[in-house]
Amino acid sequence: MTTINLKRYYPYMTENVMLEVSDEIAAALSMGGRLCDSYKRQKRRNGECSLDTDPGFEADVLRQPMTPDEYIEARETTFALYDAMAQLPPTQARRVYQHYLLGMSKAEIAAAEGVGRSRICCSVERGLAAMKNILKKSL
């Protein structure tokens, strides 16, 4: 039998309470303590990291929420961009949408459509220039 101090495992306890436990339980508690200490060292060395989500989630949580004015402005900008994209020729609009909104690379778009990458690059660039002109006229 091994004697352990419960205050070490339950930080909310205000006084030392000694308890006799079996050797297996003492070994499990000791291993858990070592794993916890290891995690704390990793956390200090690598910065704060959430275990249940993608890295970088904490930055999103710390960001201030949008004000109603910012929210309305963001929606209007989004609507204006989609409206400008709707005025492009269908092929150009599809390629701009695939590249910027779906995140496909120009090479992936070229492979899917069976055309050269340079044709996709030119089409996307011309589409962006046309959208820029459309947006300038609408403002």
From TrEMBL:
Pfam families under this entry?
Sigma70_r4_2 (PF08281)
A GO term, aspect molecular function: sigma factor activity
* InterPro entries cross-referenced by the UniProt entry: RNA_pol_sigma70_r4_t2, RNA_pol_sigma_r3/r4-like, WH-like_DNA-bd_sf
GO process annotations (BP): DNA-templated transcription initiation
Limits of the RNA polymerase sigma factor 70 region 4 type domain? 80-117
Q: What is this protein called?
A: Sigma-70 family RNA polymerase sigma factor
* Organism the protein comes from: Brotocaccenecus cirricatena
